[in-house]
Amino acid sequence: MSTVETTETPPSLARAKGERAERAGGKKIEAIQALRGVAALAVVAIHATAIERKYSGGDLLLPEWFRFGASGVDLFFVISGFVMVTVTRGRFGRINEVLRFLWGRVTRIYPTYWFYFFITLAVLLWQPSWVNTSLPQQASLWASFLLLPTNTLPLVMVAWSLINELWFYFVFAILLFFPEKALLPSLCVWAAAILVVTLFVDTSAFTPTALIIVNPFTLEFIIGSLVALIVRAEYARKLPAGLCWGMLIVVAVSLILAHAAGALEGSALKRALAMGGLYGALLASCVVLEARRSLRIPTFMRLNGDMSYTVYLSHVLVLSVIGKIWFAIGPVSGLWDNAVACAVMFAAVVVYGGIAYRLIERPMVDLSHRLRARLIR
Question: Which is the most buried residue in 80, 158, 239, 371, by most CB within 10 A?
């Protein structure tokens, strides 16, 4: 995971402290780690409901509002924008920092993703009927491998979000070439361009790549970036804790109302603005409260955030295995088998996520950091 600092420092000190933090392992903002974990489990919840509907024999235990877990992806996007602004502070206008940024982002996304890509590919070659059977056509393997935009979902279906992530990283890397004071106006112009195209241009004939470029989901990354710029301002850190707690209550109520209003089922633009705004307020409140020492993050939530990327990529495979075992045993009348199966599903996702993070994802990240230190001064 990216490391971020919680204190305000001049640019020169920020660079030096950032370099020392990377060598020492860095200090994460624990609120961000916790929210990452929440976002991952939210996505797990919606796919767990799909597994229950498929294999339970008709009895349903998981509530309908679990389907709102799809907004976990929106929270991931807002967090990504926040983190990118935070970790690049004081590093604008230098080619080596741009290279370090690109190296860090690419090696953070691809190696762990490729591990699950090849597992899914192996399952596809062994039992084609087990992979993405709900899609009208199978994914392009090369496009899926490279995370390129296409008309279909990638082989690892949840990786569609990574395509949007990579586009944001690419544009943000370009912004790093300019002075840091140009970041705020650049983000505003970028957001305005997406709004204009979405509202006034017919995109039905756009290519998949063009659709990614103008995708309203990018607004959620930009919202997260703007939140980072606001939070690090002097006045933001002086906000009373009571105001932040009140904001959290408002966000919680608004999320309930958004679910009731079907915010995820409307246009992509309305979803991006509604969910991006709410999760941006949630993120800002949590970060300020932590900085003021008014919010303590339980250890299990922080650890869940650490393994959130592994959980996100692997959970569909884990849930599918549990679902097929459930189907093989045979569902029975009543909800007790649903309760057992659902408990096993969530436990298996978390347990596997913790083990795989330690044995697969974390070693890859550490190797990437060592190679970057050798190749890019």
Answer: 80
Q: Which residues lie closer than 8 Å to 100 by C-beta, 6 or more apart?
A: 91, 372, 376
C-alpha separations of 330 from 57, 62, 67, 241 in Å: 8, 19, 25, 52
What lies within 8 Å, CB to CB, of 168 at 6+ separation is 77, 80, 81, 84, 218, 221
Q: Say which residues have a Cβ less than 8 Å from residue 115's Cβ, sequence separation at least 6.
A: 360
Q: Where are the beta strands (DSSP E) in 237-317?
A: none
Q: What is the pLDDT of residues 100-117, one digit of tens each?
A: 999 999 999 999 999 999
Q: SS3 breakdown of the chain: % helix, strand, coil, rounded to 5?
A: 75, 0, 25
For the whole model, what pTM was predicted?
Answer: 0.90
- Contact (Cβ atoms closer than 8 angstroms) between residue 229 and residue 183: yes
Q: In angstroms, rounded to a whole number, what is the distance separating the alpha carbons of residues 250 and 244?
A: 10
Residue-level length of the chain: 377
Q: Cβ contacts of residue 292 below 8 Å, gap of 6+?
A: 237, 241, 244
Please write the tens of the pLDDT for every residue from 143-190.
999 999 999 899 999 999 999 999 999 999 999 999 999 999 999 999
Torsion, Cα of 233, 182, 184, 101 (10° steps): -90
Nearest to 229 by CA among 293, 195, 271, 186: 186
Yes or no: say if 229 and 184 are a contact pair by the CB < 8 Å rule: yes
Non-local CB neighbours of 15 within 8 Å, separated by 6+ positions: 90, 91
- On the 0-12 / 13-18 / 19+ scale of CB atoms within 10 A, 361 is buried
DSSP string, 214-243: T-TTHHHHHHHHHHHHHHTSHHHHTS-HHH
What is the Cα–Cα distance from 123 to 103, expressed in whole angstroms?
Answer: 30
Q: How far apart are CA 28 and CA 364, in angstroms?
A: 19
